[in-house]
Amino acid sequence: MKKILLIDDSSLFREYLANKLVENGFEVIEARNGLEGSLKLRNDMPDLIIMEYYLTRKSCVEILKEKVSNKNVVDVPVIMISTRIDREKILSVAQYNVKKFFSKPIKLDALLQTVSGFLQVELEIDNSPCIIEAHFNDEILFIEIALGLNTEKIELLKFKITELAQLYGVPTPKVLIMFSNIEMKPTDAGKLDLLFNTVLEQTGNRTRAVKVLATSDYLAEFIDSKSDFKGIDIKESLDLAMDDLLGLKPDQIAHDEVAAAKILSKSKPINDSQEAIELRFESERHGEESDERVYPEANIAVVDDDMIIQELVKTVLDDTGWNCSVFNNGKEFVDSLSSQSFDLVFLDLMMPEMNGFQVLQYMKQKKINIPTIVFSALTRKETVGKAMSFGVKSYIIKPLKPENLKSKAFEILISDF
């Protein structure tokens, strides 16, 4: 059995990573700091070292120097992990057989692929399509799940919830789980069981503090059939789910604004710590490190009747070299399709003359296949679901966050080129 030495001051991160490595058949030796890591390196002689750059009691460079002077472990490959990666860090450790640098938050699939390559061991990972996002706002934990259910990501969610609870100081949050674009069936029972048990165990909540936004008949049957999950309330409307969580009444002043603010914004951590656990896989994110991006040539259409939005998108994309064409409504855009071609469309749903849904319907009828990012102030599940049914690549809720626009566009363009 191959041995991996894991050196990291964070007990949560060690548990998270060790758990997955043990599942894949490795013996994991954990070290809580640099000094302990140094001792275990000499005594246990691992086949691979995974080490945090910032360690207490003994620095990573000191450990690496000791490793080079020990003929028994000098050739052992090292994977270095850090919250921030810069040229200076890489150069400081490159001479010590550091084969790979990963930045936190770690993408599990990329790390396991690297471990597999170094140790020549075939690893299995669930690659079922699935996107899970989790964030806090005040006392509410929002968990968004789209496309499908993935065992690896649900298991990662266990550690993500613990990490978020520590970062934001909310040990027992209320929870809203939002399912999008998932057709659930009896074969998903095992994954659903794992999901709800994970949420309840990691939040320490009673079932009545967990709300679910979904339109699945099977999901309702599944929850009713499980005594441990009875009390988890399924809502078909985002408004109703938020009303229950916030204790709002439909006639309350600023009702919609309060609910929307809770959904769309994130709390700030109670300290300077950063998130170390990533719920997305490397295969889902292309070129996240913006400083290293090489932008492909592209023609972009921005279809929105709001001049402020038009200028915002153009400004955000200014340094990409992309050619941006602006259209004030859907009709202007579809009329242009006879003479212009586009690689990506930013499309607002609510416009005069011809709205976004009519544009999507037109392109579907004419078999015009252009990757589309929809943005809208509409947050109803039914609206999002209708837009996604046309095959749009992403749905961004207004107010727009500039950092999201460029990342989403880049991901989609890279995957289509």
Automatic annotation (TrEMBL):
<dbReference type="GO" id="GO:0000160">
    <property type="term" value="P:phosphorelay signal transduction system"/>
</dbReference>
<dbReference type="InterPro" id="IPR050595">
    <property type="entry name" value="Bact_response_regulator"/>
</dbReference>
<dbReference type="Pfam" id="PF00072">
    <property type="entry name" value="Response_reg"/>
</dbReference>
<feature type="modified residue" description="4-aspartylphosphate">
    <location>
        <position position="348"/>
    </location>
</feature>
<dbReference type="InterPro" id="IPR001789">
    <property type="entry name" value="Sig_transdc_resp-reg_receiver"/>
</dbReference>
<dbReference type="InterPro" id="IPR011006">
    <property type="entry name" value="CheY-like_superfamily"/>
</dbReference>
<feature type="domain" description="Response regulatory">
    <location>
        <begin position="299"/>
        <end position="413"/>
    </location>
</feature>
<protein>
    <submittedName>
        <fullName>Response regulator</fullName>
    </submittedName>
</protein>
<keyword id="KW-0902">Two-component regulatory system</keyword>
<feature type="domain" description="Response regulatory">
    <location>
        <begin position="3"/>
        <end position="119"/>
    </location>
</feature>
<keyword id="KW-0597">Phosphoprotein</keyword>
